[in-house]
Design goal:
Order of helices and strands: EHEEHEEHEHEEE
Radius of gyration: 17 Å
Largest sheet: 5 strands, antiparallel
Helix content: 25-40%
Strand order of the largest sheet: 2-6-5-4-7
Oligomer: single chain
Number of strands: 9
Strand content: 35-45%
CATH class: Alpha Beta
Number of helices: 4
CATH topology: Cyclic Phosphodiesterase, Chain: A
Structural class: alpha+beta
Mean pLDDT: 94
CATH architecture: Alpha-Beta Complex
Length: 186
């Protein structure tokens, strides 16, 4: 099954992000993330055999017990790799030290399970859209940036846990379901 580790986003922030992502008609080459699928990915695992899930969940539980809950703040929209040829449009979150440490700890420890280490430094974000048509992607990004600055939101939320999430690919997009929740207990 296809798995990733994530931080879930509160409902009111999902509502706001969904408003940023609303356009009157489909935009060719831009696939918008559905409201229920907004999250912060800590680590994408890819295909994992079901028999490994108990060991994986035990391991993630022990990591969660090393961390205290913390606050995250939503920051500005951005794109990967750059604004001239966007491939991903996102909303940032503060890259707090505790969040970076949590992501790094998960990445370091899971490499012992045979999962590939991340090549880039962790950049906390919530994906809004994936782009195949760069021109339309630039248009969408500029519109989202304008909408965001007009509302100038000040969203913060408390992170009390992270989840092991299953991603099921369907013709209508991905469906995410929580396999296990890990409370930050320190």
């Amino acid at each position: 099954m296809r798995l990733f580790i994530a931080i879930e986003i509160p409902k009111e922030i999902k509502e706001f992000l969904s408003e940023l992502n609303t356009f009157t008609s489909p935009i060719e080459g831009v696939n918008f993330v559905q409201k229920d699928n907004f999250h912060i990915t800590l680590k994408f695992l890819g295909e994992v055999e079901e028999k490994f899930i108990p060991d994986l969940t035990d391991f993630l539980k022990s990591i969660a017990e090393e961390f205290s809950d913390f606050t995250l703040k939503i920051t500005n929209p951005g794109v990967f790799p750059d604004k001239f040829k966007p491939r991903v449009i996102w909303i940032g979150t503060e890259n707090t030290d505790i969040l970076k440490k949590l992501a790094k700890r998960i990445d370091d420890e899971l490499s012992q399970f045979g999962f590939q280490r991340e090549e880039r430094e962790f950049k906390s974000h919530i994906t809004l859209a994936r782009v195949k048509n760069h021109q339309n992607g630039k248009y969408v990004f500029e519109k989202i940036l304008r909408r965001f600055s007009e509302k100038s939101p000040d969203f913060q939320f408390r992170v009390k846990d992270f989840v092991l999430m299953k991603s099921t690919l369907t013709p209508k997009g991905s469906i995410y379901s929580v396999i296990e929740r890990f409370l930050l207990l320190k």
